[in-house]
């Protein structure tokens, strides 16, 4: 079997249920989810062992969920049996709370960076925010999976909390935004 099909040579692709332009809002959203998944793969390399192995394992779970989400976003067939569910959102909330508790309190914004793995997680956070914006802007009449937007909203918080936990565990201090004021009163 060849990897290329030539079916997309005229700027169209196949959703589950119909062909659309590659600029379709659903294609943009699930393409960004796929991009996020790739950046998670990069972050995973820096977090695979030692004090961050549990975060690495959590990232593997998230990668599978993002494949589920991508499939759900591509589904315009009228079937509403979604692969991603609210249990995934609830699990993220538990992990966010646990990672947040590991980090020192902050009252201003922080700059992305610190440990290499934390820096990669900050990139994941920003790509997740873009995926959320794109999924929120899907402009067709087909339903979105109920867990899609909450999951994308939580996952960016997850990456922020996990990046801070990585820094705390590995002895890197968060870099406070120098011009920041007490933003979180």
Task: Describe this structure as you would to a colleague.
This protein has one domain (22-176): Hypothetical Protein Ta1238, Chain: A (Up-down Bundle). The chain contains five helices and four strands. 56% of the residues lie in helices and 5% in strands. The protein is mainly alpha-helical and 185 residues long. The chain starts with 11 loop residues before the first strand and ends in a 9-residue tail after the last strand. It has helices spanning 25-46, 53-73, 86-102, 116-136, 148-170, and strands at 12-14, 19-21, 110-111, 175-176. The protein has a two-stranded antiparallel ribbon. A two-stranded antiparallel ribbon has the order 3-4. Keywords: ATP-binding, Cobalamin biosynthesis, Nucleotide-binding, Transferase. Belongs to the Cob(I)alamin adenosyltransferase family. This is Corrinoid adenosyltransferase.
Strand content: 5-15%
What is the CATH architecture descriptor? Up-down Bundle
Order of strands, widest sheet: 1-2
Q: Count the DSSP helices.
A: 5
Q: What is the third-level CATH name, the topology?
A: Hypothetical Protein Ta1238, Chain: A
**Radius of gyration from CA coordinates:** 18 Å
What is the strand tally? 4
Helical content stands at: 55-70%
The average pLDDT score comes to 92
User: What string gives the helices and strands in order?
Assistant: EEHHHEHHE
Structural class: mainly alpha
CATH top level assignment: Mainly Alpha
Largest sheet: 2 strands, antiparallel
Number of self-contained structural domains: 1
Report, as a whole number of angstroms, the end-to-end distance. Answer: 59 Å
Shape: elongated
Task: Flag low-confidence runs.
Answer: none
Superfamily at the CATH H level?
Cobalamin adenosyltransferase-like
């Amino acid at each position: 079997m060849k990897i290329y099909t030539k079916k997309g040579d005229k700027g169209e692709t196949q959703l589950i249920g119909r062909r659309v332009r590659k600029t379709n809002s659903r294609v943009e959203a699930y393409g960004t989810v796929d991009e996020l998944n790739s950046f998670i793969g990069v972050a995973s390399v820096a977090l695979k062992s030692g004090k961050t192995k549990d975060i690495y394992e959590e990232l593997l779970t998230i990668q599978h969920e993002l494949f589920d989400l991508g499939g759900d976003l591509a589904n315009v067939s009228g079937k509403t049996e979604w692969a991603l569910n609210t249990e995934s959102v609830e699990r993220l909330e538990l992990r966010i709370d646990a990672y947040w508790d590991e980090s020192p309190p902050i009252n201003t914004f922080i700059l992305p960076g610190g440990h290499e793995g934390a820096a990669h997680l900050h990139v994941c956070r920003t790509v997740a925010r873009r995926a959320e914006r794109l999924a929120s802007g899907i402009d067709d009449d087909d339903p979105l999976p109920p867990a899609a937007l909450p999951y994308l909203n939580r996952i960016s918080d997850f990456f922020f909390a996990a990046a801070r936990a990585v820094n705390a565990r590995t002895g890197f201090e968060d870099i406070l935004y120098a011009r920041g004021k007490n933003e979180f009163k």
